[in-house]
Amino acid sequence: MGVFLEIGAIFTVATSLAILAKLLKQPYVVAYILAGIIVGPIGINVLHSTEVVEVLSKIGIVALLFVVGISLNPQVISEIGKTAVVTGVGQVLFTSVGGFFISRALGIDTIASIYIAVALTFSSTIIIMKLLSDKGDLETLYGKIAIGFLLVQDIIATIALIAVTTLSVASGSDSVGGAFLALLVKSIIAAVVLFVVSKYILPLLSEFLAGSSELLFLFAVTWGIGLAGVFMLLGLSAEVGALVAGITLSVSPFAYEVSSRMKPLRDFFIVLFFILLGSQMVFTNFASLIVPVAVFSLFVLVGNPIILFVIMNLLGYRRKTAFQIGLTVAQISEFSLILAALGARVGQLDASSLSIITFVGLITISLSSYMIIYNEQIYAKLSPLLKYLEIVKKPHAEKSSYGEGGYELLLFGFDRVGKRFLDSFSNIGKKFVVVDINPKSIARIKNAGADAIYGDATDIEFLQELPVNPPKLIVSTIPDFEANGTLTRFMKKKFPDAIIVVLAHTVTHAKSLYKSGATYVVLPHHLGAEHAANMISDLGLSKSKFDKKGEVHRQSLSSEIDHHRRAS
Fold first, then answer.
1. pLDDT tens, residue by residue, 33-43
2. Could you tell me the domains of the chain?
3. Is 535 or 405 the better-scoring residue by pLDDT?
């Protein structure tokens, strides 16, 4: 079978499994590794041109790390805050120490134990960001903190890759100290040269090339692969070179454009890396791998979330926020697999240990995806047990100033149409407060002179602490049906005489919310159609009247857009 037929067969299997993964709501990386197992020696054995596939997979790793490097903008790093740094570093430290001692207790040698321990610490930035984006949770507090500490993990993973490369080169030399010193000198010289190039040359070059998106893309590919090759000549690795290449472009105003254009290239070639990794998995002594794989998977799925939960609790965060953040680290990442593959390539990690890490990756990535998707339901079941893990019983980090309390009007959610209700509340003349989970919205509301409280409408503990008199009116503009259901049931039970107005997008959801106790359910498309019909009745067929009405509406929309821009 020729190389083209091989690659065609490989991608046919990978695509078929990727479709299945989509149906099962699984990350595609799971499908790619399973495809590698199927096309490898223990499966249908169609992968014979391993050297060609290895070269192509190397391009995938370079592209992946180049894109990761672009996200490591020093300005962003300086903004991620104390919480992200403490959680990122703390989780890596405790997980790696725990993983090392578990490895040694299982009889694994020291070097392999170090690799396994480090591999267990990193969580998948790509997978978590995709899942949070699908859930609409990127702008929530736990989403922002998760992205922050994932960035910290990426930095630590970068350092780990450099360390592996440096130690492998130095250990292969007659004079370890001399080899290490030579690498250090080369690295310093390269860093100085790249700093000058990125500060004075790349901005001018990028601006010139930006006139053609095709030329900008070609330059990005050349810069990433070229610098990866230069680092290989310096005795470092292509992986480190790709990361550095991305970092040097991260401060460019065209970084987002470069990153978006590189992602399709990354996605295509990285498939071959995971397929190759799956094909190299060892099954000859599979029985001996069952116990370590099970133990390490349990440690990642349960131990990692507990570690992060405790750290977040010590920092003063609420039980639910700490739990949601904890679930985001219940898997190992692409960095873990790349690090393991690099260790195997330089001869520091045997095939058995590589298989253990890969198996743990398959299990934890698969299960943690469902844990993140259904984190609300899991929290509802486990919340009573989580109190036993709490060291700080009174969270303080999320608690906003409640002012004097005694609010009679409550508005949950501000970003979408909340400002309309805010104006109405102001006209009523009663004391009101806005509750929102977006810190930027809280800042905008307070800048407007209104009271605001940061909080999650689905957190029963938070709702119980709200400083309200028996409220006369409760309005929710939150688009999420589950959140409105929880809020409605709680408020109806606690304040049976309150008027409860919530939002729904389907008739079925509206009926359900009425059953939960809502006084009135707003269906935007029904109200919109009713408003349009009434407007036609009032204005008739007069185009001039419609023009005036449209102009007023356009001005209103423009003022809202300008308001959001100024607030941002």
1. 888 888 888 88
2. 3-160+263-389 (1.20.1530.20), 407-522 (3.40.50.720)
3. 535
